[in-house]
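Lab notebook, bench 4. We co-purified these components, and the gel suggests they stay together. Before we commit to crystallization screens, I want a quick structural picture of the whole thing.
Request: model the full complex, all chains together.
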Amino acid sequence: MSTADDGDVFPGVPDVGKADLDAMVEDERPDPREELADVEADTDLGVAMAEDAKRVSRGEITGDEYWEKYDEAAADEFGEAYQETPNPAVDAGDQTVSTETAESLSCAVGSMDTVSTESAQVEGEESGGGIGAGDEKWGMVIDLQKCVGCDSCTVACKSENRTPPGVSYNVVMEEEHGEFPNVTRTNVPRPCMQCDNPPCVQVCPVSATYKMDDGVVNIDYDRCIGCRYCNIACPYGARYFDFGENYDDEVDGAGEVTSPEYGVDRGPREEGESPIGNIRKCNFCTHRLERGEEPACVETCIGDARNMGDLDNPESEVAKMADSSRAFQLKEDEGTDPNVYYLK
Amino acid sequence: MAWYAFVSVLVAVGAYATYLRITGGMASTNLTSIVPWGAWVAFYIYFVGLSAGAFLVSTMANVFEVEGMHRIDRDALFAAIISMAVALLFVWIDLGRMDRMYFPFFWRQLTSALSWEVHAYVAYIGILVTELYFSMRIDLARVADRTSGLKERFYATLALGRLDTSEASQAFDQRWLKRAGVVGIPLAIFMVHGGTGVLFAVSKARPYWNSGLFPVIFVISALLSGTALVMLIYVLRTRLFDGEAVNPDLLDRLAQLLIGFIVVDAALTAIETFIAIASLHPHEIETWNVIMYGPMSWSFWWFMVGFSWVFPMVLLSKRSWRRTPGVMVIAGLSVVIGIIAVRFNIVVPAQIMPVMEGLPHGSYFPTLVEWGTSIGMIGVGLLLYTLGAETLPLTPLSGGDHE
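Here is the predicted assembly.
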């Protein structure tokens, strides 16, 4: 393979063939016996299981045969740790062994999902108070001088929150003023304002939408009846009704994964299940804030026009910007007192 | 029989449309996040208005004891109950999550007009049923006395076992009827229909609704449509069910009432329009532009101005016409249909202009599913009314007034 003449060699690309590459990989590959010697577990058992696992993946033996062969040995070797851990081959959605085998195994039979949800909950409890209970008062400052109107915030928001057709937590309002050649163009990105006096919260007949301690206006999808009164009351047009449409024509399995909004993973999007039939809106990517990340729109902004931070902390950048003489809020005379500020 | 066949067709159409609504979800409507409220909301406030109006007409008989009105007391009350039931059907089908319809009784919001309204509607239906009971109880007892077997037990149950037909018992009923009416009047005016107006008027984001006069006009147009409905029912039922002659004095009285309400409704609407336009608030002016000259302006000029004000006013102008049942049926029908356009012109135009410059404009016309379900729910109302009119003694057996 490395016989190519000089004409086929591209500048900057090393002239190596498959055999050379394989040799390099073999060089790098650790010796299984040496590696396993470092751990307490039985080296022979580990090597044998690894070899057979390769056979399973090549299709030479089945998963059932594999686990029937090693279940007892693994239980002897690892004891309680083995018995209490769910077997990755046993999973409600994507099970690779037959039910009979699964039941005969001495390890815990449960899906890996259950373990991950449990550990996630434990983490949540440690941070205290649940979602939205942070000490910060989240605010956003958008510098209109830096906004070029590229709409990447809108796109980032759609992919982060996996919003369906007709629902767009963020839009960029593009206005053109004047007549050619004296034209100015203003781009005003519009997320939810997370108002301090939110008219939407005021009108909800079942208190399904409310201010969280961190200033974000929440929607409880399990309580919202879908009357759309908040939709009517919002002076910023920031609320959207989920009509249950999907991007099925555009993307295969569009509804398979949903965003864990407000820290709740609702699994695949299903007809008749919330948030379908509910009102939806921007929540400053609460699920990202909770794990210490900025909202998707802030992170993606190409001109660094969007800033996220704690308005209660006078030393924070957003608090300083929101205090500047360039700062204003949308529809200030409505008395809603938004937590989204703009810089002229 | 032809009537039942007609009503059955309406209900069947509605049943199929409702099936499409439930399987297709809210996507079966032409509603969007820009125009989230449409035909169902318009019909909901329409029927709340009909109910409040019909109820207030009934109080003229049982609270204010206007001479000669007792004849239509129960008709008006029963129509008010049915209208309210239909209104709630419209609210129900409009919910994104129909399965959560009872949630407002579990969780509340003190600042939400809608939260208060839901409770007011329930209290109001309670008052209406109580009133109808006290108004009709003595005749239920009389009918029970005349019949036997299952029928007797049916009417006796409706009378809650109070089968006394003495004058003392009647006086008791009338006392309580009046008391319920006295509670019901402020409930109907300020909470049920005024409150429904408030529900819209508090939306500061929609300047077209955001006025103090708005809930008042709501109540006046309710009185207008309610009076027209009662007049319509009175003539049709007297003619078709009872085969009796219509009392021209009573008809004239209802007709004059109708004139009064048309004048007040049109005048207040004109004031509201003038204030809106004089404010020079761009949102207000553009919304009125949409109403008067937009693609749906026909509904304003033909139905709202024409059918609910001008045309009936012409028919009501002559004394001899006011005493002619046929002409008054047309006048009543004209108003009852015209007020539907009034309700649509309340709900939809406020959502056409975007709440902020740069957001998209709205546009809305109901889908066949929305029309079909609406027709079906109206059909259910007609069916219930007809069944009630056939089984219940809605026409006082003693004929005339309170003795």
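Chain A has 13 helices and ten strands. Worth comparing against the SEC data before the next meeting. Chain A touches chain B through 48 residues (CB under 8 Å).
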